[in-house]
Amino acid sequence: MLDVQESTPCWVDVDLDAVGNNIASVKKFLHSGDVRLMAVVKSNAYGHGLLPVARTAMTRGADALGVTHPNEGIALREEGIDAPVLIFRPLLPGEEEDIVRFGLTASVSTVEQAELLSAAAQKFGLRTPVHLKIETGMGRTGFLPETLKAMANRLFSLPGLEWEGIYTHFASAAIDSSFTRRQFQNFCGIVQDFAIKGIEFPLRHVCNSAAALLYPEMHLDMVRAGTLIYGQLPAGVTSPALDLEDTWSFWTRVIHLQKARSGATIGYGRTHRVRRDTVIAVLPVGYRDGFGLDVQRRPAGLLDLGKVIAKIILGYLGHPVGSPYVSINGTLAPVVGRIGMELSCIDVGNIPDIKVGTPVLVQVRRTVVKDSVPCLYRCQVPSHSNSGPEMQT
User: Fold this and answer.
1) Domains along the chain with CATH numbers
2) Known catalytic residue at 46
3) How high is the pLDDT of residue 365?
4) 311 given a catalytic annotation
5) Considering the entire predicted model, what is its pTM?
6) Hey, which bits of the chain come out as E strands?
7) Which residue among 42, 46, 167, 230 is the active-site one?
8) Sequence ranges of the binding site for substrate
9) In this chain, where does the modification N6-(pyridoxal phosphate)lysine occur (predicted)?
């Protein structure tokens, strides 16, 4: 771990070399020079930092960048990044002029969006690249096949639009292979119908990280990789073909040490009772930082439901299952009591040499960490202004 000021209560350590190595590993896995790689840098590059990751991605072989919102694409352009940038979400009326002015690529899900983009392109005397989004089962955005068929002549007669790509989004690539294959077949059928009519798209893409690993036959012209470049495999997916490196860690420090007698209770609701004399360390992190947060999913079946109920009962009886731990001085320490908004407690009674200021490695949800938490970037890849570690906020 790199040194930071002892007065820094929390920080994120981002390894840009690891990001670059992961991108190179994914590129190697694609193995065909004809398959492009889009590095997905939405949500502040999954909490890693939009600009540093985007620069690293393009340096290490990515062919394009993907973001959700136009302001993310504009931020890339204003920092001199001229790579192709695809905006995933539909545009609000009024955003189309920025798309054209900054040379971004829009996803088109309705004729109305296409008409606004066409008008903006004509206003600036430019041709703007667009990708046609097809809804095949995600149920979110994109043309329904029957709507697209009815609107095709109107859509493709609009001036100023360069139909660079066509794509869809898989709903459950890592879970439901039959549904994924059905989505793919529907997508290919639409592309084939267009080809018969003489309408070709240079970039066809359907694969996210999970699909890229599980269905290599679906790579087509480009793959959209997010999870993989940040050193993680999608849930439920294993891949011995990829050698991924961890890219991100969240650190905090002990801000207070509190002696606790046997029988004392800790935190809101007095949910934890101390069973022996110990020492409690207080950390300046909580659920506001994404600590202890988990996505609540609907149980997949009766067995899954039974597990959820059992965990609730055991927790009520004082035997929580899956309680979070942190790492301090290389040793795991349990979190005790309820995690607060900005303060949490850990039991360090059996760990020597703990003092105020001792660094603590904490597992938090990357994409909800506050922007005010500084990032410490480590890299050997030259960036816009430096080539070494730098603390940024």
Assistant:
1) 16-231 (3.20.20.10), 255-356 (2.40.37.10)
2) no
3) 86
4) no
5) 0.87
6) 10-15, 36-40, 64-67, 85-87, 105-108, 128-133, 161-167, 203-207, 222-225, 248-253, 256-260, 265-266, 272-273, 278-283, 325-328, 331-336, 344-347, 359-362, 375-378, 390-392
7) 42
8) 140, 341
9) 42
